[in-house]
């Protein structure tokens, strides 16, 4: 049955849910209908919209050149950025530009599929929990929805990926993960040395990078972009996130000046990767490294994509402050928690800034 639409608006919210979620049209489908106004469920409360007065145009997160990554100055810049900003960009990181371009093309290929093809991977229809096409963040828990569709791919093995991941993007995402792994290892090595962890043994490797989730995010053109958000304020639950964004821009990071209600734009830099600390690394480092809130605005004239790789502990790992960090008598701020409990807590609520980490506080 066709959705109930009058004057290019939905007559009720169940018709909208049916069109966007149940039929897999996503917000991309809404955008392509040429709606004249933003549907009500997407209108965010005033305090969650990002207004111009909160931008700090003169500030920028650090940009770190990885060409001479063995130089101790690079390690010191990485640790410094992870402590003070929780966010930085890397350039000359050795992931070939073709790999990045290919995964961006693959993202467009996936979202350009007809709705019924994408809907095969929805929460209801997907053959596996490890592959999920969705919209907004957690629509069941949210008071106001986010203007974003996504495909989330949890990596188990190349064999599983070859059976379950959508063929239009599978190889390109796998290649992106493979080539990025080298950079992830370098960054984690530097960050661990900065907190007195001299060797990344198998147990540490699992805690730091035991599981990998890649999301393909699609933010379509939005009517009334100032009334909604692409992604609401949140910190990631990962140890590190490696984010590839396109040339459109729109990602903002909470600044560290004054009362902190100032937001710094992350400008797109050709070939760069954005790196951010997630909650798991904040917990493991007992607050030495900071997971910082970030958000994405909606755009009135351009479609935007981004491809974050979330590098995480294994779901079965117990996370808490590392012994090396507590050696000098430092008090633990966090208890030991099962990582999958932590992630479930995150996924079952709407984006709510930095609140997730309270789940692990003593
Ligand atoms: C994710 C879990 C917990 C799933 O475990 P499982 O036993 O399958 O639980 P489940 O009952 O299917 O899922 C738990 C809930 O999470 C939701 N969920 C599961 N996967 C996803 C997903 N990819 N995206 C959104 N929600 C999800 C489910 O819908 C469940 O909610 P509900 O339906 O009960 O309301 C497990 O695989 C795990 O522990 N993984 C650890 C590694 C991992 O995936 N870490 C997450 C890193 S993601 C990260 O850091 C940031 C993600 C993010 C940020 C902003 C966004 O806007 C966004 O979209 C995503
Ligand atoms: O799209 C972006 O730039 C950021 C997305 C993000 O924060 C996320 O998916 O966790
Ligand atoms: Fe994020």
Give a structural overview.
The chain is of the alpha+beta class and 362 residues long. It has a single domain, classed as B-lactam Antibiotic, Isopenicillin N Synthase, Chain (Jelly Rolls). The chain is 30% helix and 20% strand. The chain is built from eleven helices and 16 strands. The protein has helices spanning 13-22, 26-32, 72-84, 97-111, 115-118, 158-164, 170-193, 202-209, 279-284, 323-326, 339-347; strands at 5-6, 9-10, 63-65, 87-91, 131-135, 149-155, 211-219, 231-234, 240-245, 251-254, 263-265, 273-277, 294-296, 304-312, 318-319, 337-338. The strands form four sheets. The chain has an eight-stranded mixed β-sheet with strand order 3-4-12-9-14-7-6-5. Strands 8-13-10-11 form a four-stranded antiparallel β-sheet, with no helix packed on it. A hairpin with a 2-residue loop joins strand 1 (5-6) and strand 2. The longest helix is centred in the middle third of the chain and has 24 residues, at 170-193.
Question: What would you give as the CATH superfamily?
Answer: B-lactam Antibiotic, Isopenicillin N Synthase, Chain
Structural class: alpha+beta
Largest sheet: 8 strands, mixed
Name the helicity range. 25-40%
The domain count comes to: 1
Strand arrangement, major sheet: 3-4-12-9-14-7-6-5
Give me the number of helical elements: 11
CATH class: Mainly Beta
What ligand molecules are bound, each kind once?
A: ligand H5L, 2-oxoglutaric acid, fe (ii) ion
- How many beta strands in the DSSP annotation? 16
End-to-end distance, in Å? 52 Å
User: Helix-strand pattern, N to C?
Assistant: EEHHEHEHHEEHHHEEEEEEHEEEHEH
GO molecular function, one term: 4-coumaroyl 2'-hydroxylase activity
Domain Fe2OG dioxygenase: 205-313
Cofactor: L-ascorbate
GO biological process, one term: coumarin biosynthetic process
């Amino acid at each position: 049955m066709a959705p109930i639409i009058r004057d290019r608006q939905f007559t009720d919210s169940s018709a909208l849910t049916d069109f966007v979620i149940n039929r897999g049209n996503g917000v991309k489908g809404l955008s392509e209908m040429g709606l004249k106004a933003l549907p009500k469920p997407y209108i965010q409360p005033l305090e969650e919209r990002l207004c111009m007065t909160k931008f700090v145009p003169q500030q920028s997160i650090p940009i770190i050149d990885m060409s001479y990554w063995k130089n101790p100055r690079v390690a010191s810049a990485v640790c410094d950025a992870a402590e003070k900003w929780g966010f930085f960009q890397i350039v000359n990181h050795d992931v070939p530009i073709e790999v990045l371009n290919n995964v961006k093309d693959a993202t467009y290929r996936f979202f350009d599929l007809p709705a019924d093809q994408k809907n095969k991977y929805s929460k209801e229809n997907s053959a596996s929990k490890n592959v999920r096409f969705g919209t907004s963040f957690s629509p069941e828990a949210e008071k106001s929805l986010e203007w974003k569709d996504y495909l989330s791919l949890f990596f188990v093995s190349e064999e599983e990926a070859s059976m379950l991941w959508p063929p239009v993007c599978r190889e390109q995402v796998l290649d992106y993960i493979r080539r990025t792994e080298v950079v992830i290892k370098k960054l984690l090595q530097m960050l661990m040395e900065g907190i007195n962890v001299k060797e990344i043994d198998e147990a540490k490797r699992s805690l730091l990078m035991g599981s990998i989730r890649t999301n393909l995010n699609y933010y379509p053109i939005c009517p009334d972009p100032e009334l909604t958000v692409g992604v609401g304020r949140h910190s990631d639950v990962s140890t590190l996130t490696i984010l590839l964004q396109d040339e459109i821009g729109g990602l903002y990071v909470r600044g560290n000046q004054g009362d902190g209600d100032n937001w710094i734009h992350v400008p797109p830099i050709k070939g760069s990767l954005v790196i951010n600390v997630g909650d798991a690394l904040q917990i493991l480092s007992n607050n030495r490294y900071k997971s910082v809130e970030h958000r994405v605005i909606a755009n009135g004239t351009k479609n935007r994509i981004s491809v974050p790789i979330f590098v995480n502990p294994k779901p079965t790992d117990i996370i808490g402050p590392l012994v090396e960090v507590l050696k000098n008598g430092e008090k633990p701020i966090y208890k030991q928690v099962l990582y999958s409990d932590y992630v479930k807590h995150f996924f079952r609520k709407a984006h709510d800034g930095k609140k997730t980490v309270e789940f692990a506080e003593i």
